[in-house]
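User: Could you go from structure to sequence for me? I need the amino acid at each position, not a summary. Structure tokens:
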């Protein structure tokens, strides 16, 4: 999933782990609190990811106007 900060436009990869939303700024990850999440919007996510966000209490995150649904990764089976 990808999030964009509405204040400065910074795009961050993120994922839900347990009850936390983690985002990465370079090599470092940080927890994005529910209130802090109000400053971000979702620009890309799989359906399962944004459903998980809602279940974990991150309903305050908005979808960006340019939101795109991510396709699940398909791994080759001929190895």
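Assistant: Here is the amino acid at each position, in order:
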């Amino acid at each position: 999933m990808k999030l964009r900060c509405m204040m400065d436009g910074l795009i961050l990869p993120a994922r839900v782990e347990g009850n936390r939303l983690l985002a990465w700024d370079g090599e470092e990850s940080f927890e994005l609190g529910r209130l802090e999440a109000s400053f971000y919007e979702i620009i890309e996510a799989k359906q399962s990811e944004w459903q998980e966000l809602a279940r974990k209490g991150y309903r305050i995150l908005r979808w960006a106007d340019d939101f795109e649904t991510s396709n699940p990764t398909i791994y080759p089976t001929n190895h």
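One structural detail worth keeping in mind: The helical segments are 47-55.
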